[in-house]
Amino acid sequence: MAQKKILIVEDEEDIREILRLVLEKAGFICIEAENIKHAYVKIIDLKPDLVLLDWMLPMGSGIELARRLKRDELTAKLPIIMLTAREEEADKVLGLDSGADDFITKPFSPRELVARVKSVMRRTGVELEHNQLQVEDLSLDTASQRVMIKQQPITIGPAETRLLTFFMNHPERVYSRGQLLDNVWGRNVYIDERTVDVHIRRLRNALGKQHALFVQTVRGSGYRFSAKINEQG
User: Fold this and answer.
1) What topology does CATH give the domain 132-231?
2) Domain covering 5-128 in this structure, CATH number
3) Domain boundaries in the chain?
4) Which is nearest to 80 in space by CA: 56, 106, 52?
5) What would the pLDDT profile of 163-215 be if each residue is shown by its tens digit?
6) How far apart are CA 210 and CA 163, in angstroms?
7) Sheet strands side by side (includes 222-225)
């Protein structure tokens, strides 16, 4: 089984280093971010298996980021463990209501940290996750982000991979450009809707002439992913 990735969101560098060393020793791959803006970008681009999220952060709180992640279809199931010095029950209830799966109160032992991370992963099904999406001879491994046609890997960019993942998880349904922006790039990301057309074109080029037909333009509405190529709008 592939190593699991954990995003550590903590503004204090020395604490991030301690967390990273403990988790890497336990066999995890660690990604780091010092504020919620950088954290969100890394979540979208690198797709960690779990987020270790400090409550108090610059540019917005961990609570704010947790709520944003749970509102977004692409990140709603991402496990979150909050790190906090707060011990009041009301604070923990607020964190759990915001989408956190567990709390670790500072200070904590390395053994407790690793145990809680593993517990949340088991509880949320992360360790079992290995999703192979398949449409005819086009396949996408969501764990490795590898796209293959006839079992041969193809060259495809990260944004196009995210777009294809969304399409393959939601076939036969028409999505507007705005809906694709929200679901693939995330809400509150200010990108012109026509940017979607650029990535659709790149995706079709990556898939090649035959499989590009799966990505269909529905005039006046948006785009649809379908292997029923004769029903293109």
Assistant:
1) Arc Repressor Mutant, subunit A (1.10.10)
2) 3.40.50.2300
3) 5-128, 132-231
4) 52
5) 998 899 888 999 999 889 887 876 555 677 888 999 999 999 999 999 999 99
6) 18
7) 174-175, 222-225, 215-218
